[in-house]
Amino acid sequence: MYTVVGANGFLGSYIIKNILEMTDEPILAVCLPPVEEDTDRVKWVPGDISDPAFVEFLNKTYLSKSAHNKIVYLAAYHHPDLVEKNQRLAWDINITSLSRFINSVDHLDRFFYPSSDSVYGESVNGYRFKEDDPLKPVNRYGHHKCAAESIVTEYGYNIVRYPFLIAPSRAPGRKHFYDTIVSTLLAGKPIEMFKDSLRSALDFDSAARLMIQLMESGPVPQKLNVCGDEDLSKYDIGLRIADKLRVSRDLVVPISIENAEGIFEAKRASSTLMDNGLLKKTLDLKEVRLVF
Ligand SMILES: NC(=O)c1ccc[n+]([C@@H]2O[C@H](COP(=O)([O-])OP(=O)(O)OC[C@H]3O[C@@H](n4cnc5c(N)ncnc54)[C@H](OP(=O)(O)O)[C@@H]3O)[C@@H](O)[C@H]2O)c1
Which of 182, 185, 187, 213 lies 20 to 30 A from 175 at CA? Predict the structure, then answer.
């Protein structure tokens, strides 16, 4: 059985889609209320993962009764500005709850945790970080991801490091940045996007599919960069969306990361690029591309 914790989020809804498409396993979908309707393969369980009594209930009622458990743990307090502002709450969800969960559940065969390129810090001269490079996060969110990675890997489980992920939202009632770009461009309005801030960006569907492919494989490296081949700015991504919508590229207005003042509160690395060679070797892939 798969259990997805944080199942109704942006990544969670694509993870569920891919488990359904790629396996025959039932899914326990755990999230804060409200939950979606159950289907023949997906059972929704509302609850707060930072509540020890809920974790005990989850384990006793479901996980301990399943002989084999594969967990995708997505619940997080992850907006960098809010992590900075609400440090104790963020620590409680990102570190304490994760540690308690991993140390509480039974019959755990596989546990995958989504970390982030933010653990590496700043790429200098287009350097693409490899999995064993030193970690130098530039903000508290990145430090939380480093601490969470240690908990997961020291316990013997897996982390994947994702880049900036983007795609249409499948999360009920929530718009992703992708959807905002689409609605702005379709309204004929301009949208400003950073031209000089690069990421090894990927779409949510590919990110989810690759995680499930790894979980369905035999032993895989404990730490993997799961990212695209290309070094992309948000401006590049904006142009792709404009092309897809067949609207004028002029609506996508390039701006510099130097003008980010007032947009972000917590510090961001201007560019963070990752090398996906180990991922490609592990899954025997020729290319990994951002697709919408
Ligand atoms: N999106 C990216 O570009 C990206 C890149 C790298 C890594 N990641 C990581 O991937 C994970 C998922 O990210 P996402 O983009 O899918 O974010 P998201 O949409 O906010 O998903 C997180 C989910 O966890 C739920 N959650 C939060 N606190 C919870 C709690 N105490 N108990 C139960 N559920 C809780 C959230 O519910 P509510 O919405 O109701 O709060 C939400 O459904 C995070 O760890 C994030 O750091 C994301």
Answer: 213
Fold (CATH) for 2-167+198-231+268-283? Rossmann fold (3.40.50)
Residue 275: the pLDDT is 98
Q: How far is the CA of 7 from the centre of ligand 1 (A)?
A: 8
Instruction: Compute the distance between CA of residue 136 and CA of residue 95 in angstroms, rounded to an integer.
Output: 18
Backbone angles phi, psi at 139, to 5 degrees: -145, 175
Lowest-pLDDT range of 32-41, 50-59, 110-119, 255-264:
255-264
- By C-alpha distance, which of 270, 189, 284, 278 is closest to 226? 278
Report the pLDDT averaged over residues 225-250: 98
Cα angle 168, 260, 273; round to 5: 60
Report how far residue 207's alpha carbon sits from residue 210's, in angstroms, rounded to the nearest whole number. Answer: 5
- State pTM to two decimals: 0.97
Task: Collect all residues with Cβ–Cβ distance below 8 Å to 3 and sequence separation of at least 6.
Answer: 27, 28, 30, 58, 62, 63, 69, 70, 71, 72
Cα–Cα distances in angstroms (integers) from residue 18 to residues 21, 122, 227, 243, in the given order: 5, 32, 17, 27
In a mutational test of the pocket of ligand 1, which residue from 31, 35, 88, 274 has the highest number of ligand atoms less than 8 Å from its CB? 31
80 lines ligand 1 (CB under 6 A): no
Task: Convert the pLDDT of each residue in 170-197 to its tens digit.
Answer: 998 999 999 999 999 999 999 999 999 9
Q: Which of 213, 216, 235 is nearest to 285 (CA)?
A: 213
Q: Is 211 in the pocket of ligand 1 (CB under 6 A)?
A: no
Residue whose CA is closest, atom 7 of ligand 1? 116
